[in-house]
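Cross-check.
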Amino acid sequence: MLTCWRTFLSLGLCGALLPLPAIAATVQTVSGSVYIDRGSGYTNVGGSTSAKPGDLVMAKAGGRAVIIYEDGCRQAVEVGSVATVGSASPCQSGIGFIDHDYIIAGMAIAAGAGVAVVLSGDDDKEASGQ
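Predicted model, tokenized:
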């Protein structure tokens, strides 16, 4: 039984330490000149390209683009504007949305409780008054 708990806790702790993937988006040129800055300067978007949270998308004069998030949400980038790719889809209303930070915190708390149970030893014995 103790071995089973240790295996369960080890798997839980390993899972809690794995990084969660960033939400990916695609930048698609609709018309004109569109540029993306991934942190090292703007480069031309020729058709479409992948983007990550924090990337900047700029549409020059006569340019238009759309940022398409994994859930299908579309964010327009109009002429002369700059848009930032978000870490969450702008279509998220908060209903049913799960914040990954809360998941990790919950897993860490559960793992800590499990470790405490395992380390507590054999507490099933009744304490005697002798």
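The chain is about 30% helix and 25% strand. Helices lie at 2-17, 100-119. Passed to J.P. for a second look.
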